[in-house]
Amino acid sequence: MSAAASGRAGSRYWIVLSIMLAGFGLLAVRAFYLQIIEANYLQDQSNATHLRIIEDDSHRGMILDRNGEPLAISTPVESVWANPDELAQARGSWPALARLLGISLAGLAQAVRRNAGGHFMYIERQIAPQTAKRVMGLHIPGVALQREFRRYYPAGPVTGQLIGFTNVDDVGQDVIELAYNYWLRAIPGKERVLQDRYGNIVQPVESISLPVPGKNLTLSIDRRIQFLVYRALKAAVGTYHAHAASAVVLDVRTGEVLAVVNVPSFNPNNRNGLRSSLVRDRAVTDVFEPGSTLKPFTIAAALETGRYQPNTLINTSPGSVRVGGYTIRDDEDSGIISVAQIIEKSSNVGASKIALSLDPRTMWDMFRLVGFGAPTGVGLPGEASGFVRPFQQWVPSEQATMSFGYGISVTVMQLAQAYGGLANDGVMMPLTILRRDQPVAGRRIMSATMAQEMRAMLELVVSSGGTAPGAAVANYQVAGKTGTAHKVGAGGYEPNGYIASFAGFVPASDPRLAMVIMVNAPGGGEYYGGEVAAPVFNRVMTGALRLLNIPPDNLPHPQQWVAQAPAPGATGGFVRIGPQDSASGAGGRL
Q1: Most CB atoms closer than 10 Å: which of 1, 51, 361, 543?
Q2: Is 370 helix (H, G, I), strand (E, B) or coil?
Q3: Given this structure, which CATH class describes domain 53-218?
């Protein structure tokens, strides 16, 4: 090789070497710049893209019946979310994603535009696990899953209006779920995680706060009795073509509510097309005029004065009485009957005459004492107070009609509490929807002797001569009272619209359970409380007494009280007769 050629080769060597060294130098400078000078900025950008703080959800507390059976539980589900900016760059995958989730393509596009610039958006909440698996199988950048919990109600419509429901964020929206949301709700934890470009968690980085699960809530409700009541009410509404019905069952000794049922109901597991009218718990929110189920409290007020006894005679002839321009009637002329028979035959005339002999304050005090006109405090939201006019405003016709349940409004829950006081030897217990593990003090509304006298009179109602033989339960003594009242409409009382009701308790010799049934607007020609509501009591209590292992009274035939014709110069007499005899006289069927 010549000297010239050798020189040119050497020059090229140094040129190439210089270029390579310059390149390495530039790379070193760039690496220094990125790793030292811009390190914090780049780390922040990387974290913003792949490091996320997610909520670590925990489950809402269960709602249980008194025996530990679940009435509301939370089950894990998956929700689909996305980084809107990353999803915007994968437009070609949108149609498949929309079809899989059953959403519109236009709606998905609008959601992406609306959330542009953000880092999180829900696409679909609470989907089935198999659907979630298929979504992740699409491998769409920015789309990921988030574990959530969905509320499930095992009893469905049987407890729909009692338990209520939660929204998609597991927040209580009505009744128990709303009233005790503070107790049931879970507090989510927070966790920092590293995610890949598809939103999958690569690894957890740190726990910021731990999740706190909701606390379980144990109700006083017995799910078995709740089902018995629901089935019987639904059958009654169907049989008599009624608009609706409500019922409450109480433990008279503890004040615990064992069942609260309204028909028609709704299924909280499927709320498509749900109407607001189906959601409210009508047993505590709706008021009605109780009709003759109020008579026992009018009679109790009269007995309290000492002027009346169960065998005091009242002349109800000729089966009607005129008061202040209004005529009050019985179905038949019962003649001279005792106070006890006024209850047995449900004589409006007899109750009115007794009421008009009392000071208005006496009746008003009794009504208020048993809880009418004030909420029971049972612990259910939206409870109505009912209405009792101040006694100073009463006129004679109002006092007379109030004696048999017109001009006063109550809820099913209030009436059940009042009858619970009659059953519990005159001690009315505070009501609760939560299970009571410790005894509480009640409030005395009448003497034990008077309560026992009232119970004996109410037994006659369920006898063959009373207005509610259909409420009788085999081998048990039953005490109760029927009610039939005209409904109040926009123009006053509806001539063909009725409220049929029955209130009672069992076993009458040592009461344990009280129940009130109200059937709204029964049709088909049968509308009396003894025909429509009393058989519901029979069906429910026949099962409930067996479930709770409450022994029979062993006195299956209640004695009856009837009036004897007065001897000359005497005021009349009163005797008790057995089932082989018969009571005479008839009264109103209200």
Answers
A1: 543
A2: coil
A3: alpha beta
- Segment (H or E) for 400: helix 396-402
pLDDT > 80? residue 50: no
- As annotated, the active-site residues are 292
What are the pLDDT digits (tens) for 539-563? 999 999 999 999 998 554 444 444 4
CB 126, CB 150: distance < 8 Å: yes
pLDDT tens profile 184-224: 998 876 666 666 655 556 556 666 767 788 999 999 999 99
Would you call 80 helix, strand, or coil by DSSP? strand
Question: Which pLDDT band, with edges at 50, 70 and 90, does 362 fall under?
Answer: very high
Residue with tokens 């925990």: 58
Domains of the chain: which residue ranges? Answer: 53-218, 223-270+279-577
Q: Letter for the amino acid at 7? A: G
Q: How far apart are CA 331 and CA 251, in angstroms?
A: 35
Mean pLDDT in residue range 439-468: 94
Specify whether the CB–CB gap between 127 and 246 falls below 8 A.
no
Closest CA to 195 of 80, 44, 51: 51
Gap between the terminal Cα atoms of the chain: 134
Residues 495 and 472: their CA atoms lie apart, in Å, by 30
Dist. CA 230–CA 236, nearest whole Å:
10
Residues linked to residue 127 through DSSP beta bridges, in sequence order: 78
Q: Which two tokens stand for residue 365?
A: 């005090």
CA dihedral in degrees (151, 157, 161, 165; nearest 10)? Answer: 10
Q: Are 340 and 559 in contact (CB under 8 A)?
A: no
pTM, entire model:
0.81
According to DSSP, the β-strands at 313-315 and 336-338 are: antiparallel
H-helix or E-strand spanning residue 148:
strand 143-152
Pairing of strands 326-329, 320-323: antiparallel
- C-alpha R_g of the chain: 37
- Token couple for 164: 């209520």
Token pair for 455: 């119970």
Tally of CB atoms within 10 A around 574: 17
H or E, element range at 502:
strand 492-506
Measuring CA to CA, how many Å separate 553 from each of 310, 473, 506, 535, 545?
A: 23, 11, 9, 20, 11
| Bond preceding residue 507 cis, omega within 30 of 0 | yes
Query: Residue 280: what residue type?
Result: R
6 pLDDT tier (thresholds 50, 70, 90): low
Q: What is the pLDDT of residue 417?
A: 98
Q: Where are the beta strands (DSSP E) in 316-468?
A: 320-323, 326-329, 336-338, 427-428, 443-444
Query: pLDDT-derived band of residue 9, with 50, 70 and 90 as boundaries?
Result: low
CA 160, distance to chain mean position in Å, is 7
